[in-house]
Amino acid sequence: MATLAAPAETASGRNPGFSLKWLGNVLAHGYVWVWLAIFALPFLATLAYSLRTPDGVWTISAYQYVFGSFKENLLLSLETTILTIIINLVIAVPAAYAIVRHPLPGKSFMLSALNLSLYTPAAVMGLSLVIAYAFLFRIPQTMTGLIAAYVVGTFPLMLVPVIVALRDLPMVFEEAARTLGATRMQTFWRVEIPLLGPGISAGILLTFVIIFNEILVTPFIAGPSTTTAALRVYNLTRTAGFQPSTAALATTMQLVSFVVVLIFFRFFGSRYLKGTYLI
Amino acid sequence: MSHAPAEVAIEYELADVPARNDFATPRRRGVVLVAPAVLVAVLFSIIPLAYLFQVSLTRESSFFFTAEYTLDNYREVFSRYPSAIVETVYLAGAASILDLVFGYPFAYILIRKIRYREFVRTMMTFPLFGPLYLAFGLFYILLPNGVLGPPLASLGINTAQYLFSTGAVLFSMAIFTFPFMVMNIGAALANVDPMLEEAAKTLGARPWQTFTRILFPLSWSGIVAGFLMCFGWNLGVFAQPQLLGSPKEQSVLAIQMFTKGLVQFNYGLAAALGVLLMVMAFAVTWVSLRFSRGALGA
Q: Which of A186, A198, A254, B297 is most buried, judged by most C-beta within 10 A?
């Protein structure tokens, strides 16, 4: 947040007082700030609503539900997200390594097949999975099914940042380690994984932000025992209307997501998100 | 799960590092490393989607008992749902146009004038937390007795009239995909040398001429890629019409599909709607991949 330069800063040009250029700059920065406000506005409105009773009294009492009846939904969300991240890592990092460093037959076709779930609309993915789960795999409304759906939908997002990071990584480090007598596994764990750190964490960030808040596939495949927090928000708005307690849960979800994003940007910046959809 | 067709510009050629001598069987090793990912993709996206296509060719839920193969579902889709198709395309198109009109200046300012880009990018992640929270927040904003309702009402603006309207749905859709548009156009603009604009200005071009003759042609690929990406995402729109829309907006394909499949158990028809939606999304993605090659310098 230290880089937060006020638009007024641009006013201190060489030409004090009113000028067209100054006005243009103020308008330009103002335009961006208006949009930033619009991005944050739904969140701020939800926050404000969660802090108010219908009578207009300001209170934080709605948050007792977040750690009360919503607690298991939140825990389930965290659990599914963490499991998905772990499975994504286990399958995507070796795959990215193979795609960059090994000769493989039909590489571009294989990448398209791996990314198929990215190009399919989420609702279609949800419908195809609910049918397959019910009649083919026999795992309807289970945790296994939910996590499998999340993994197939997000491991390409882990794959891409790691591929980008691996491509930027010169072979010399790996070769030096091998020349100095490290085994292939030692090279991988002690040399390449640390150097790939930012790329891998970009994948973790993307998976976290998407899965923690996933609401496009979840309504199709989740059951009563697998209601994630985001799905609970959705179900409550559909059945109980717009309640401050629901707003409190939605606020908590967004706050957690935003804190994770802030931590990531603080450590790595946005460089390693290039080539993924987060600029 | 259509999480943005953006990883597009991976250069496969670079990946073809020649096999080294100490790798006894590099190809086999590579196949083993990539196998788990391929297995997951085959099991949970390729097989279910193929299955969906097969179900779309059977009558109602007969597939699960004695399958009756028929093309009736597709006939029904095109005879009963043309208005749903039009509504889906209209909402996705209008939201993408909004994104383009407001996103282009945003991307230009972000690339050319702003030094606190990291902060802007951080703030731009808010819409990515999902359409649900966006629609939810907008609902609160529009609610007559919400936080902003009374102050806006005293200014003579009745916010409640925008609840359950096309405008509210479009606005929430446009905010959701705004970052994708900014990303694509920004990537294209970052490759345009500012000197070109300076030169045009020096040679007496007006700002409008600089835009139409220099900036627009040079950022064309980014515009097309961004537009199609927004369009592709919004084709599967589900939560926003559900929470903020009137029955007209709620006729979009994704919601129809959910209702037919999971409420009325007409799997055949739901699958046919799904296949249609998928074909539309693939077509859009295919064209956008053609255009975005090089625009996203990944």
A: A254
